[in-house]
Specification:
heterodimer, A: about 50% strand, B: mainly alpha, Cytochrome Bc1 Complex, Chain D, domain 2, globular, binds copper (II) ion
């Protein structure tokens, strides 16, 4: 059981305005999510998410104004089935906007919505990204 | 001559036509889904939390302990009393019978070593931790905390078998010897891998594009399999080579065990897991890296866990039964009827639409049963174990 669309081979060219917060995840692969205020790049470890197997997410999160932002929480749910994970991720800050969320597990194939709660200063926001597991 | 050729080619076409009738059309997407239920058998179990996992000496000791009634309080009950080789490693009863009748069915041990959560409520996070529970439980073998240690020290054959498996004579630490007993039991149980089945032959042939072999799989089973991976979505939970996610679900089986008393299922199991000195976060985990404890570290107890029970694997399912965690359904036909007619009102959680009445026709129900029965095969008879230290 593997990630349907193999990891999007997004080349994470770092925009000029994000100098202090590189979005490079080290392998040239990953997903990018952004909003009006935030830019975020993440990839899974291991790179391929298997149904029923624990995995971690490496996350870099920045503000559009090129500062490092904070990752508060990572969670996931299956919107069609109205259930979440049976596991709770914990987050370790690696400095300079880099984080590792450990202990995620998708126990079912289908569409999972991953939510990232990010914050810079007093302003927090929820970013989401969908992954389809087959 | 031309006529003859025509006749021959018509006959050939006819033969192909007849054969083609025995194989339904399988889309690339369906073939991929079928492929996920194999290959079989899987590689042997290696449990890093158990240092005797996969070792011949550990397995041999475990098999003898498995059949050893002196591990029980009254000296009359062994693991094999309820987990019988001739009954698919269960007992054929609706509810397990230890020192008293219990509220849940004896789960089969087939393919148990590949799980990550053990027991109907997942209170165990390793096969060895789970094996301690019935040894101690007053309702089951009622062995008490020192019995395993006393047996390993006092019986010459067991003492020798222990030394071969663990590398030293049994010491005086009874809790350690209880854990080691359970680890040997687990090493043995992890070798119980169910045989290849008609489904496996079909799956391999379908993936290899071998239409002739694939067409030997009965049509009813093919139709049932299409339902299983398609409309009925059984494979959302019964997935992978063992036909289980190894996780937990509420499928609308009433969870009152007696008037006014419920079986909380996974919710209770997670409470016991956290309280157990034998869980993978404790000192008896042999995996120094601790990476095998990730599930235990991150699992969360939620109110939706009430009334959830472990999703059982489906290999050998037709030879087992009664069904469900409480043995409340007698036959596979009853199980299919449950899923066909289950009332959403019976579900305890907030309307998770995974389990819904499938409204199957009589033929569809029979097809699903035919498919499930294709997951059965006759296991080779087990020879009695060789003496531990002859
Ligand atoms: Cu789901």
């Amino acid at each position: 059981m593997r990630l349907a669309a193999a990891l999007l081979g997004v080349l994470l060219a770092t925009p000029a305005w994000a100098d202090d917060c590189p979005l490079d995840l080290g392998r040239g692969t990953g997903w990018v999510v952004f909003s009006d205020h935030y830019l975020m790049a993440f990839r899974s470890d291991p790179l391929r998410i298997e149904v029923g197997e624990p995995f971690a997410l490496l996350v870099n999160v920045c503000t559009r104004r090129s500062g490092a932002a904070e990752l508060l929480a990572v969670d996931a749910n299956m919107p069609e089935h109205r259930h979440g994970m049976n596991y709770r991720a914990t987050i370790v800050a690696k400095g300079n906007g880099r984080f590792r969320a450990e202990g995620l597990l998708f126990h079912m194939p289908g569409r999972w919505e991953i939510t990232f709660d990010v914050r810079a200063g007093s302003e927090s926001e929820r970013l989401t990204h969908d992954i389809i597991l087959k | 001559m031309i006529r003859l050729l025509l006749l021959v080619s018509l006959l050939a076409a006819g033969a192909v036509g007849v054969r083609a009738q025995h194989l339904l059309d399988w889309s690339a997407e369906e073939i991929r889904a079928v492929g996920q239920h194999g290959p079989w058998p899987p590689p042997p179990v290696q449990d890093p939390s158990n240092k005797v996992s996969g070792t011949p000496a550990g397995i041999a000791l475990g098999e003898h302990l498995f059949n050893e009634p002196r591990l029980s309080g009254d000296g009359r009950m062994s693991c094999a009393t309820c987990h019988q080789a001739g009954r698919e490693w269960s007992d054929g009863l609706a509810k397990a019978r230890g020192a008293v009748e219990l509220d849940r069915r004896t789960p089969s041990l087939w393919n148990i070593g590949y799980l990550h959560w053990f027991g109907w409520d997942g209170a165990g996070d390793s096969l060895w931790a789970q094996s301690i529970r019935p040894l101690l439980d007053p309702r089951e073998m009622n062995g008490g905390p020192t019995r395993a240690g006393e047996l390993l020290r006092s019986d010459a054959a067991f003492a020798c078998g222990y030394e071969r498996a663990f590398g030293s004579r049994p010491g005086s630490d009874d809790e350690r010897l209880l854990v080691d007993t359970a680890k040997a039991l687990a090493a043995f149980q992890a070798t119980l891998v169910s045989p290849r089945t008609g489904f496996d032959d079909f799956r391999d042939a379908l993936l290899a594009g071998d239409r002739e072999s694939a067409s030997r799989y009965p049509l009813a089973a093919q139709r049932g399999l299409k339902l299983f991976i398609g409309e009925a979505s059984c494979n959302l939970c019964h997935l992978g080579p063992r036909f289980t996610s190894g996780e937990f679900g509420d499928i609308g089986i009433p969870f009152f065990v007696r008037p006014g008393e419920v079986d909380p299922g996974r919710h209770g199991g997670l409470g016991r897991l956290a309280a157990s000195p034998f869980n993978l976060l404790g000192k008896y985990n042999d995996d120094a890296s601790g990476s095998n404890a990730r599930r235990t570290r991150h699992v969360q107890r939620q109110h939706t866990n009430f009334g959830e029970f472990r999703v059982p694997g489906l290999r050998q399912v037709g030879r087992g039964g009664p069904y469900m965690h409480n043995g409340s359904l007698a036959t596979l036909e009853d199980v299919i009827r449950h899923y066909s007619e289950v009332s959403p009102d019976r579900l305890h959680s907030d309307g998770i639409p995974l389990v819904r009445p499938l409204g199957l026709t009589v033929e569809q129900s029979a097809d699903l049963v035919a498919f499930l029965r294709s997951l059965d095969a006759e296991a080779l008879a087990r020879p009695s174990p060789a003496p531990l230290c002859p």
